[in-house]
Amino acid sequence: MASRFSSWDSYFWEPGGPVLRNLYGERDAAVLAQWECGETSAQQFDIERGAVSIPKTYDAEHLRAMHKELFGNVYEWAGEYRTVGIRKNLGEFAHPAVVPQYLSDANRIIRGTDSSTMDRDQFASAAAEVYAYVNQAHPFREGNGRSGKLFMQHVSELSPFRIDYSPAVSGVSPELWNQASMLSGPDRGQYAPQPASLVTVSRAMAVERPPQPPKVSAPDPSRDPMRDRSPYRASFPKPATGATRPGTSEDAAKRPPQRPGQSYGVGRD
């Protein structure tokens, strides 16, 4: 990260100003918001449809790569940890020095959970705990909510559920989600987040995935097909249309049926 992003004011065009430095050179906050929304929406669509490959390691590097992809065309520091403390409303997020530990703990929870067989309540509890740590880390100067929610979509792929943030599907409004996220922060002076407030909204946003058909292994081209045949069928390697009675030639078997009194030169009737 460029060394100039080492203080609160260094992220802005002007000390105390409202507009973050950006790669567009835009100094109008409203215009920047529009550009940012359009760019990140397009990048998110590409990530969700698989057009952009992000290694799914479910750790800090996974989240940083996702943030870099979302905001890399907007901010120079995309994908890099913030160097300053940030707070929202009454909540204060992790000190920059502790950000890596929160993300490490989120990864530990993910890897220590058997997500493949969990039911809806188990999924809601696990998702709430993971997101509470990611949210408290708030590792970037801007764009933590968008990258964190998309990260959770990747995490949900380990389970029988997906996360749908649409209020029309879940009934969870952005205001309710933000409130639950804010309440999940640790108590004053404590380290561990309190994910209980996120459990109900996580359950509402969980959508069961359709069952996957069983995988069928491709045939091994190096395997002898005769090996798997029954001993009886293996003793008759010719197709049924070529099989003849003992003592009858194959050419004779292909001849049309004889009519009484006719001969084909192989003997008398």
From TrEMBL:
Keywords, comma-separated and alphabetical: ATP-binding, Nucleotide-binding, Nucleotidyltransferase, Transferase
InterPro entries per the UniProt record, alphabetical: Fido, Fido-like_dom_sf
A Pfam family assignment: Fic
Region (Disordered), start-end ranges: 207-269
GO biological process: regulation of cell division
Residue ranges of every copy of the Fido domain listed in the record: 58-200
EC annotation from Swiss-Prot or TrEMBL: 2.7.7.108
Catalytic activity: L-tyrosyl-[protein] + ATP = O-(5'-adenylyl)-L-tyrosyl-[protein] + diphosphate; L-threonyl-[protein] + ATP = 3-O-(5'-adenylyl)-L-threonyl-[protein] + diphosphate
Compositional bias of kind Basic and acidic residues: 221-231
Annotated GO MF terms: AMPylase activity; ATP binding
Regions crossing the membrane: none
Name of the top EC class for this enzyme: transferase
Claim: Nucleotide-binding is one of the keywords in the record: yes
Protein name as it appears in the record: protein adenylyltransferase
